[in-house]
Amino acid sequence: MKHPVIIFLLASFVALPAYAQLSTSPDVFSTEKGELTVHAVHHGSVAFTFDGKTIFADPHGDAGLFARFGPPDVILITDIHGDHHNPQTLEGLETNNTRFIVPRAVADVINVKQDQLVVLGNGESAEVLDIPVFTVPMYNLPGDNETVRHPKGRGNGYIIDFGGKSVYLSGDTEDIPEMRALEGIDVAFVCMNLPYTMDIHQASDAVIDFRPAVVYPYHHRGQDIKEFKALVDDAGVGVDVRLKDWYSN
Asked: How far apart are CA 156 and CA 42, in angstroms?
């Protein structure tokens, strides 16, 4: 007969959440302007260090999660929801000298100085601190703009050019035609959590279509990202799926 303590420990090990087996280390990519380092922070929050600059995307959660990076030079925000534009998180960051790239809906509610804002709509672009940024739509399908959680035109997905390395941030979106039509993406961050965005089948099908060189499933609470990876790997299209720990924090 097994000792009850051993049984308890075995059960606890089996019950460990999936993120316990995922990578927490940053990834480094070579660019024409040196190294780009990618840090998975929390949920849909990503940090980039590049060319002596620090860039945050959708900082959300405890501001202490971002302390190791120092004050951000640029913050990109995709939408008005609290896991993208989070006033409490922003209050805990040193942002007096930060440039904010935001859609109009965020610009209307964010508490920063107007001269810190770069306001972009879908299909627009800007160069901020020598970093070109392009916007693409992010929205839900099907539905009309009166009922969907993410109406077309309100939020931005972003494509950032880090020294010739093209990085796509999906924001909250479904597998919209504009995402499927993307070309030349080196690194993609693709959301997948129902009922707000899409499931792993929609997400993997879209990724198989636009074929980024590397894809990170993010903003994926409640979804099986290992199954997402299996779906993409089985398609044999040469996409490198990288699984990171977004939730242990």
From this structure: 19
Residues 6+ apart with CB under 8 A from 105: 79, 80, 154, 155
* Contact present, 90 and 102 (Cβ < 8 Å): no
Write down the pLDDT at residue 150: 82
* Whole-prediction pTM: 0.90
Using CA atoms, how far apart are residues 99 and 55, in angstroms rounded to an integer? 10
Q: What is the DSSP letter of 146?
A: T
Question: Which residues are within 8 A (CB) of 18 and not within 5 positions of it... i.e. 6 or more apart?
Answer: 224, 225, 226
Q: Are 224 and 203 in contact (CB under 8 A)?
A: no
pLDDT band at 14; cut points 50, 70, 90: very low
Cβ neighbours of 142 (radius 10 Å) = 7
- Give CA separation, 223 vs 52, 64, 228, in Å: 35, 26, 9
Sign of the dihedral through C-alpha 135, 106, 38, 83: negative
CB 219 within 8 A of CB 191: yes
How far, in Å, CA of 25 to CA of 29, rounded? 13
Could you give the CA distance from residue 56 to residue 85 in angstroms, rounded to a whole number? Answer: 12
Residue 99 β-bridge partners:
74
pLDDT for the residue numbered 143: 61
Which single residue is written with the structure tokens 């504009």?
Answer: 178
Q: Inter-axis angle of helices 200-210 and 225-235, to 10 degrees?
A: 30
Give the Cα separation of 31 and 51 in Å (integer): 10
pLDDT at residue 1 greater than cutoff 70 = no
